[in-house]
Amino acid sequence: MTRDEIIAGLADILEEVAGVNPDDVAEEKSFTEDLDVDSLSMVEVVVAAEEKFGVKIPDDEVQNLKTVGDAVSYIEKAGS
Amino acid sequence: MTTATGSRIVSVGHYQPARVLTNDDLAQMVDTNDEWIRDRVGVVTRRIADNETVADMAAAAAEKALAGSGLTAADIDLVAVATCSSVDRCPNVATRVAAKLGIAAPGAYDINTACSGFSYALGTADHAIRAGAARNVIVIGAEKLSDFTDWTDRATCIIFGDGAGAAVVTAADEPAIGPVVWGSAPEKGETVRIEGWRPYIQQEGQAVFRWATTAIAPIARQACERAGVAPEEIAAFIGHQANARIIDGIAKRLGMPQAVIVKDIVESGNTSAASVPLALSKLVERREVPSGAPVLLVGFGGGLTYAGQVVRCP
Fold first, then answer.
1. pLDDT tens-digit profile of B64-101?
2. Of the candidates B84, B141, B128, which has an alpha carbon nearest to the alpha carbon of residue B297?
């Protein structure tokens, strides 16, 4: 799966969970600062991402995922 | 005493203290605001006990349930109380309730599985009736969480409230309390704590949120299966009133298009073991679902423990 495909998948999740406009989703965007995703929505995003991409994202790791790019890199690495 | 093929909830009752604590009141005490609390937790008001003890609130709720049951104190042979916030270790809350209501010699025990307590206690009542150990039971969930709340901690003090709910359960030819599905996740136990001497409630909100939004829907589905009721037929869903977004998350995963998704958390906050019977009693009072309709109860929380069953609405 390419980075662009992962971003598209995350954009779908963010729209569904937190009502984020998919056009706003890009690698450099911060979940909390730019996309207005609060801590509980972030948990829902992570759970949905685990299911969609077939990876495990432990609680300890979630706090390191500040930007969309961080999440893409983690999913890319965890899924390989 | 003879065994029975099943049991049913005949009547319910609840008690909440008079004092209302609003989000604006809390904003005067800690750095928070109404919008944040509504958005993250879903609470608008909660009730806080002043002089009432857990036993006082439990007895008040039980008295109302008993009054609606057509039975008298003399008919009750078991009192089961779910609570995690009774300050006194002994006598237990159940015997104090019995003393207040004039129930002469009932079996009387407290059960502590925190927020899942009512479903656990209701399960034990159903089992006792089926086993012939009891015939008419009062099952109560009662909490005074304000005694264990750190009023300087903005992460927790906005969540909790005090109150009690009760149900009178009797033997029935047609089982109207479905098999309880219960269990726990001990490895996650440290995520909700009321520990030590003179403790406060502490919790790891995100970890609990994740567990509740993912692990509980399958338990709820199992409770439906064990009762032979499809989620599509559920008339009302009363999950533990922990957080409005958890309740929505579970409801969405389960898929209950017909169900009233009960959110008493808005006006009562999180009252741990009291939340499910309190919400059930208010639902019955509003006559929001017809008598006999299937209602899904699911408690989950501290321990981490969980329990749920489908009951027929009294």
1. 999 999 999 999 999 999 999 999 999 999 999 999 99
2. B141
Residue A38 catalytic?
yes
B207 part of contact set with chain A, CB < 8 Å = yes
- Residue A63: which domain range? 3-79
CA neighbor of B159 nearest in space, from B272, B262, B55, B239: B272
With contact defined as beta carbons under 8 Å apart, do B79 and B103 qualify?
A: yes
ipTM of this complex prediction, to 2 decimal places: 0.88
Q: Looking at this protein, which amino acid is placed at residue B217?
A: A
Is residue A48 classed exposed, middle or buried when 0-12, 13-18 and 19+ CB atoms within 10 A define those classes? middle
Search chain B and give the residue with CA nearest A61.
Answer: B207
Q: Looking at residue A30, which CATH number applies to its domain?
A: 1.10.1200.10
CATH (residue range B6-172): 3.40.47.10
Domain count, chain A: 1
B6-172 and B181-312: identical CATH topology: yes
Q: Is A55 on the interface with B (CB under 8 A)?
A: no
Topology of the domain covering B181-312: Peroxisomal Thiolase; Chain A, domain 1 (3.40.47)
Our CA angle for B240, B81, B97, nearest 5°, is 135
Q: Which of B69, B49, B76 is nearest to B164 (CA)?
A: B49
Does A38 sit within 8 Å of B249, measured CB to CB? no
The average confidence (pLDDT) of chain B is 96
pTM (predicted TM-score)? 0.94
Q: A–B: how many Cβ contacts below 8 A? A: 25
pLDDT at B11 over 80: yes
Put simply, whether B248 touches A (Cβ < 8 Å) is no
Residue A59 confidence (pLDDT) above 90: no
